[in-house]
Amino acid sequence: MTEPTKRIPSLVALGGGHGLSATLKAGRLVADHVTAVVTVADDGGSSGRLRRELGILPPGDLRMALCALAGEDDEHARLTRLFQHRYGGTGALAGHAVGNLVFAGLWELLGDPIEALDAVGSILGVTGRVLPMSPVALDIAAEVVGLEADPRVVRTIIGQVAVATTPGSVRRVRLIPDAPPAADGVVEAIEQADLVVLGPGSWFTSVIPNVLVPEIAAALTRTAATKALVLNLAPQPGETAGFSAEQHLHVLRQHAPRVDVDVLLVDPRMPLSATEREHLERAAAGLGARVVTAEIAKTGPDGTMRAVHDPASLATALAASLPGGAG
């Protein structure tokens, strides 16, 4: 990866899953210290099983964030592959990621999830820090339409996996429990950052949940950091299917009326008509943001845009979006 010519002291990235991993890989090319603030509502797969059986935070997205920030020398790269490895077979370990089990074990030994995350970070050679969004495991409840013959009927779907896979259109989400606390260190990291990045990722289950934590939303309104929102490259089936680009921004404003952003990063190769681009510009202005276009998606062998963010290109775009430009 080619690093921007200048760096900033501190970057905070909020989200979960593969979208957050891409941002973190970009962030380490831009900033000397990167803090990941990770959603903790996953209830599926290995994470869901460990959450239910041990009463811990779902470790999957936390593990992915740690691996995205892990050391790149041979020893740490080998450990990262081990942490990402999933057991095969059909027994009790089948499907569990090694890193999930290590985190669970360290939590039991140390008695604190953040101490456990810091310990895993030390093992993997992480130079930044990974923090949970909240110290308590959360559930997502979504208001969904389109599940009944009458399209006006709204049903409530509970659980991240259910929300992401249920047919229909999500209109609004909330957290259970309501108004959870932020984890120790999260507010301070946001307030002291030079750049805060929200997105890309599953809009209703990875991006929006962050601004539903009152302390995080308040910190986002107070921070002097540049706040960048990275728009998804394509609608996500099960969450934002049929959404226009501007709808993503309206949804964010609906859930966080007081949270503004400074920069909206958009790949110019996204299939938007002139009218759609005009509507997107207007929606961005409603968030206080200027639209910055940059080729931040990976390019396929045929030269076309893939719906996957490229960390090196995203790093360059993030650096250039800062006041005065850092790239």
TrEMBL record:
Keyword Cell membrane set for record: no
Superkingdom field: Bacteria
Keywords: Cytoplasm
Family in the record: Belongs to the gluconeogenesis factor family.
Location(s), subcellular: Cytoplasm
Protein name: Putative gluconeogenesis factor
Organism from which the protein derives: Dietzia cinnamea
Annotated coiled-coil segments of the chain: none
Function per UniProt: Required for morphogenesis under gluconeogenic growth conditions.
HAMAP family per UniProt: Gluconeogen_factor
